[in-house]
Design brief:
Helix content: 25-40%
Number of helices: 9
Strand content: 15-25%
Shape: globular
Radius of gyration: 19 Å
Structural class: alpha/beta
Largest sheet: 5 strands, mixed
Strand order of the largest sheet: 3-2-1-4-5
Oligomer: single chain
């Protein structure tokens, strides 16, 4: 047990998402000692992206000593640690976050795709603890995917993380920023589900209360609301089935804010996957066992370079 008069040493985890950014300070024993959530800026005028993160990291760390910093970001993130995502993270794209923060704090800093961080969190403290092969899907502003094999994320030959959220599906979606006209992210992200809910409820597409209200109506038996979630489960299965045919993992965990409503679309999702028979494989399918700070917790455990 540490001396109570000595500030604790913590790992800092940052989940840099298209809508919100979350910060956690994690103790050596895995306890989350403090956390913070703020909206993700779309641009900066009075400060840099690095200074924005610096101030919040200082806040969440408090008087504790920082041992390392990990950042999960909505990808792509290149092998040099630079975010290349002008579509959902325009304010942070091309910013030198890793060298800036490493210099400012004097500690190792790592950055990776946010789906990797979500998967690490689920395998360490979440729904798939100890799983030898875990496919984690994040249903958020976009769709992220990560396959962990014995705790290590699958990488491409170029060192980049596979962008499984941008695979082709059987529905015409209109153009996605990835270049496809039938893209999984455009039919199965939380943002798409939210827009559908807003249309049904005559609310603004950006009103996040729409999804909560639609879920409440579905839970009360409203047929139109139930139909939206049934269709959403089918949309999730459309892309997930392709990944299950390719990866054939032991465990599948659905995370992101859409997973909060998993019970409302689980039946149609599972029915659609069952129809694929032996062409796919997964041992266990579940929703996340951790809250919205899971990505930040996983980021805290990213492997960092030697200082």
């Amino acid at each position: 047990m540490s001396d109570p008069a000595t500030p604790e040493t913590v790992r800092i985890g940052v989940d840099l998402g298209g809508t919100g950014t979350r910060f956690v300070a994690v103790a050596a024993n895995g306890d989350v000692l403090s956390q913070l959530a703020v909206p993700t800026p779309e641009g900066f005028t009075d400060e840099s992206p690095s200074s924005f993160l610096y101030r919040r990291i200082r806040t969440v760390a408090g008087e504790r000593t920082i041992s390392s910093i990990g950042i999960g970001a909505s990808g792509p993130v290149d092998p040099e640690g630079i975010i290349r995502n002008p579509d959902t993270l325009p304010a942070f794209t091309n910013a030198p976050l890793v060298p800036d923060l490493a210099e400012a704090f004097g500690v190792p800093v790592a950055i990776d795709n946010d789906a990797v961080c979500g998967a690490i969190a689920e395998q360490r403290v979440g729904a798939a603890q100890g799983s030898p092969s875990l496919l984690h899907i994040t249903l958020g502003t976009g769709i992220g995917s990560c396959l962990l094999l014995d705790g290590k994320p699958l990488r491409g030959a170029d060192g980049m993380h596979p962008e499984g959220g941008h695979i082709a599906v059987g529905r015409e979606t209109g153009p996605c920023y990835c270049g496809r006209r039938a893209c999984w992210e455009q039919v199965a992200s939380r943002q798409t589900l939210q827009k559908t809910a807003a249309t049904l409820l005559a609310l603004k597409p950006t009103d996040r209360t729409a999804l909560t209200e639609l879920a409440s109506r579905a839970e009360a038996g409203d047929e139109r609301a139930l139909a939206v979630f049934e269709d959403y489960g089918t949309a999730v299965a459309d892309g997930l089935g392709t990944l299950l045919a390719v990866y054939r993992p032991h465990s599948v965990v659905l995370g992101g804010s859409a997973a909060e409503h998993y019970e409302l679309f689980a039946a149609s999702l599972e029915q659609s996957l069952k129809a694929l028979g032996v062409w796919i494989h997964f041992g266990e399918l579940s929703k996340t066992a951790i809250d919205d700070f899971g990505g930040a917790i996983g980021a805290a455990y990213l492997e960092t370079p030697t200082a």
